[in-house]
């Protein structure tokens, strides 16, 4: 206590290392924490907490360590003691809380810290509210921080390389070092610090404490914040601003369903309720009468998915169902992308054909004013680009930054796509907002096949003639005589006479129908409770996979598959890193 009162840091540590009782009290029930808080000795408070010191002891005069820290205006001490279990709402004999003491003493910063502590204390004192920073975890963190050197030495002795040890070794070292945790809590810690389900633990993460405590409760969060130094003669760096802000649809402008459901771009994901024991994709029910699964199987709840995920997965059944229910064919998601734009971006030919048959707009634009043709060329899909142009897509559509589909095809480095666009008359002389034309972009991507192709196209363009030569040619040509239009005799069209309608509303006719029973017909049409969702057979799935491999190469079956543009960028970045010169 005397060492804590005087702020003798090393003496306090040596006494505790020798086995002194950290929680002993004097005649007035004063704890060593009281004296450390009164002097504002934050480092001593950390040592006392690391050896299991109780922060919430109440003295005979009704004061806690928080009262003394508040009276001295020690901000960090107030925050530390409040986080370590001291009641911030406790009143002393003068009926003052620690915050009232800080206010009376004129310490606004300390009062602000105590207000935060009071809010957290009130929040986690309610019944049923789980504290994300349990007391045992805080005590363990303080203990591990104080014993960091010995723990690190023990961990390094069994280190497997890269700061990794097994869970058994982790648990054994904590027990050997007498950590203030139970066996169940050690298991919880091992699971939190597990690396990739391999049964190993990163002890560096454990020593930091960020896996089981929030950042504000870590000892590393205390102290003055480091300020970034100035770089050279440059001025103060302002806030980061996007060169091209990403535009999204506001919530108020989103088209929602009439029944108040999710936005229209969130569509129902159909799931089959057919009994998998009786039927499968290769042996589906022959008719709705045979499939009575809906009568005894549990009904599935409706689930809605973003239309982009549905298109990426190739779920054509869910798309058909959504459009049958009234979802517009050109519905836009948060980034103004229509289903056709998304299908072109993912290179799904089947869905592109389906949407074009439904009448999708081939010249719709997204938030960057890319058309479906831009996306098709960017993914290097020559057949999709051909289909879009057949349905009226603008071949020289200009995006927000001035880029054309030809420029996107060049970026993907797909020779067949670029050759097709040139054959269809794409303009190679258009420039973007950076002043680059198609040849400049091809040179930037250093694909010599495309450079040669575009140079040949530019050379084949006829040079414009001078205005003087045009005027001379017009003078040399004799004036052509105006041709008189030949008026053809108009043919007279004889309109057919309207046929007289048969009157069938007579009383005799109605009586005859009643006598025959024609008006009492009963509708016996069978309406099944649920219809099985058509699924692709195994043979069709294999065929579909073969088509995807032919379109995107064999790499499409792997999780790290990249579209041509991304793959090209990654490959060139790798080559530059290997050969920096």
Automatic annotation (TrEMBL):
Keywords from the UniProt entry: ANK repeat
Keyword Heme attached: no
Lineage, uppermost ranks: Eukaryota, Metazoa, Chordata, Craniata, Vertebrata
Annotated region (Disordered), positions in chain: 464-499
One Pfam family here: Ank
ANK repeats, residue ranges: 1-27, 335-367, 368-400, 401-433
Protein name: Ankyrin repeat and EF-hand domain-containing protein 1 isoform X3
């Amino acid at each position: 206590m005397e060492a804590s009162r005087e702020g003798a840091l090393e003496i306090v540590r040596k006494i505790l290392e020798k086995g002194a009782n950290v929680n002993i009290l004097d005649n007035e029930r004063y704890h060593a924490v009281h004296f450390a808080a009164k002097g504002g000795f934050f480092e001593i408070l950390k040592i006392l907490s690391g050896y299991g010191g109780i922060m919430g002891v109440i003295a005979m005069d009704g004061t806690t360590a928080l009262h003394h820290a508040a009276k001295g205006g020690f901000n960090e001490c107030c925050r530390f003691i409040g986080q370590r279990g001291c009641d911030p709402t406790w009143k002393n004999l003068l009926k003052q809380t620690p915050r009232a003491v800080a206010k009376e003493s004129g310490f606004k910063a300390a009062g602000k810290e105590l207000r935060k502590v009071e809010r957290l204390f009130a929040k986690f004192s309610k019944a049923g509210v789980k504290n994300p920073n349990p007391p045992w975890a805080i005590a363990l963190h303080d203990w591990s921080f104080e014993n960091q050197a010995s723990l690190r030495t023990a961990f390094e002795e069994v280190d497997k390389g890269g700061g990794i040890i097994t869970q058994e070794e982790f648990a054994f070292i904590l027990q050997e070092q007498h950590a203030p945790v139970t066996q169940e809590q050690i298991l919880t810690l091992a699971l939190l610090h597990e690396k990739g389900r391999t049964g190993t633990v990163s002890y560096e993460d454990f020593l930091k404490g960020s896996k089981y405590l929030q950042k504000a409760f870590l000892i590393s969060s205390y102290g003055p914040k480091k300020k970034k130094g100035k770089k050279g003669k440059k001025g103060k760096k302002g806030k980061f601003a996007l060169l091209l802000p990403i535009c999204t649809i506001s919530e108020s402008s989103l088209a929602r369903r009439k029944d108040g459901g999710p936005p229209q771009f969130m569509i129902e994901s159909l799931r089959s309720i057919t009994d998998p024991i009786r039927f499968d994709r290769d042996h589906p029910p022959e008719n709705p009468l045979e499939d009575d699964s809906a009568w005894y199987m549990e009904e599935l709840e409706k689930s809605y998915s973003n239309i982009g995920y549905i298109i990426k997965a190739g779920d054509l059944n869910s798309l058909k169902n959504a459009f049958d229910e009234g979802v517009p064919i050109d519905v836009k998601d948060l980034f103004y992308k229509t289903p056709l734009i998304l299908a072109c971006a993912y290179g799904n030919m089947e869905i592109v054909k389906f949407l074009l048959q439904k009448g999708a707009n081939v010249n719709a634009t997204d938030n960057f004013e890319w058309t479906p043709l831009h996306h098709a060329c960017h993914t290097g899909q020559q057949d999709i680009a051909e289909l879009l142009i057949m349905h009226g897509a603008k071949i020289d559509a200009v995006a927000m930054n001035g880029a054309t589909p030809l420029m996107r095809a060049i970026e993907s480095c797909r020779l067949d796509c670029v050759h097709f666009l040139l054959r269809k008359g794409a303009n190679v002389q258009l420039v973007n907002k950076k002043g680059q034309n198609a040849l400049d972009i091809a040179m930037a991507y250093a694909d010599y096949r495309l450079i040669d192709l575009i140079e040949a196209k530019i050379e084949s363009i006829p040079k414009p003639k001078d205005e003087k030569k045009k005027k001379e040619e017009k003078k040399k040509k004799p004036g052509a005589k105006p041709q008189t239009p030949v008026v053809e005799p108009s043919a007279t069209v004889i309109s057919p006479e309207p046929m007289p309608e048969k009157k069938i509303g007579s009383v005799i006719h109605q009586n005859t129908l009643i006598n025959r029973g024609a008006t009492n017909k009963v509708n016996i049409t069978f309406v099944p409770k649920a219809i099985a969702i058509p699924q692709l057979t195994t043979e069709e799935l294999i065929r579909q996979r073969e088509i995807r491999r032919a379109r995107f190469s064999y790499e499409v079956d792997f999780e790290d598959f990249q579209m041509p543009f991304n793959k090209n960028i990654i490959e060139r970045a790798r080559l530059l890193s290997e050969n920096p010169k």
